[in-house]
Structure formats: C-alpha cells, structure tokens
Amino acid sequence: MYLRAVHAETSIKALFELIQKNPLGVLTTAIPSTTQHFIQSSHIPWVLDIISDDPDAPVKGRLRGHMARQNPHSKTFIEALNAAGLPSASPLQQEVQVLFTANPHHYVTPKFYTETKPATAKVVPTWNYAAVQVHGKATIYHDSSSPESAEYLQKQIQDLSELCETSVMGYTGEGGRPDSWKVTDAPERYIDIMKKNIVGIEITIEDIGGKFKMSQESTKGDREGVIQGFENLGTDVGRDVAALVRERGEMKDAAKK
PANTHER family of this UniProt entry (predicted)? Predict the structure, then answer.
C-alpha cells in the first residue's frame, strides 16, 4: 500500500478501530499449488483480537475467520500443509495479507475544487477512501475432528456471530432492540455438520499500515468545496465522506500548529 505521508495513519489503535467497524476483509495469498491459482483472494469477515497497539510489538493482534471447505483457497491451504507433512492447526510457511476498506468511500469530481479549478483549472478526479493492510502468518484449522481445530472453530463462529449480531445489526436486546441470534439457537448436530464444511484461519498481525485519503493534500478552500459537494449529494455516503474530509482536514491543520 502506498502510504503518502499526508494520508498515512500512524496510530495502530485507529487502524484497529477501522477493522472493527469494517470486519469484511480480503485475504490474499501467493501459495504454490498443483490444482489452484498461485495468487488467490477471498472476502472473509474477521474477529479482531487486540494484543498491543505498540508499533514495535512483534505481534500486534490476531484475526480469526473461516471459509467454506469447497473454496479453492481452502483446498490450497490443505494441500500446502499436506505437502509439508503438517497436521491441522499448523501455520503456513507463506506470509498472507488482508485488506480492509472503510464503507464510506466515493469518487471526487474536479468540480468540487472550488478554489483551484476557477483559478488555474489544474485539477483532476480522484477517489477518497480509507483502508488498512495487514501482513502476518496464518494457522489453518481444517480437521474438525481434532480437539484443537474443533475448539477453535466453535469459538470463532460464536464470537463472529456475536460481533455481527450486536455490532453490525444492533441486536443487543437493550432499549427495545431485538435479542441477537446465537449459535446455540441452531441444533447442535446441525452446527457440527456445518463445522465439517468450513476451514478456520487465524492470522498473527505482524505488520499493519493504513491510510485515510480524504482530501488532506488539498488547500483549505478546496477541502471546503469537497465537503460542501459531498453534503449536497444528499446521500448517507456523501454525508459520511464529508464528515471524514472535515475531520482529517482539521487534524492536518492542527498538526501544523
């Protein structure tokens, strides 16, 4: 990821918060296989376990997720472990990457640059977005009959369900909100069958970086034009991007003082 200084987010805590608010990440790997593509990507919702927000910590956290056993990605993982003679609940040799993108992102038309466009016309389109990129090692849990893998899969699906039911859906059972769905609401035998059809993935976060590209590089006048332009769209995304442009612009201005 290109981390231009004006856009780079140096706070690991802030990067973790982006992941927690946007748990669907794209897992990308480059693993040799005799049957599947060398480079593969899969969209996976993740549970984040925070260990440390110290940038010098060797392991800053863990991402826990799972994917369907029928996914070509899963077949590559199992093939790689089998080729190395490693059992389930073993780490892959190769580094993996997960990319998270914040929900509010949008194209930026040059028409929004109300200071520079009328003065020089030296403006071009861009796209405002925020993203976090994680690198680390992945442990694969593919045998649900082994105690270690079974325990991991059970905890992971319970924690992920709770995260999505409460944080994403708002089903907290409080203030008139509905109660959350729980794994125990489904028949135990059914869940056991489902666990046989998924592969667990646990990634140690060894390196993390991210950016909020929200027009900070623009002049204050152009930023105001971008904010007004997005607010005038009258959409939720427009309002959210406008708020981020304002927030990040204020942070940039404050850093100069």
Answer: PROTEASE SYNTHASE AND SPORULATION PROTEIN PAI 2
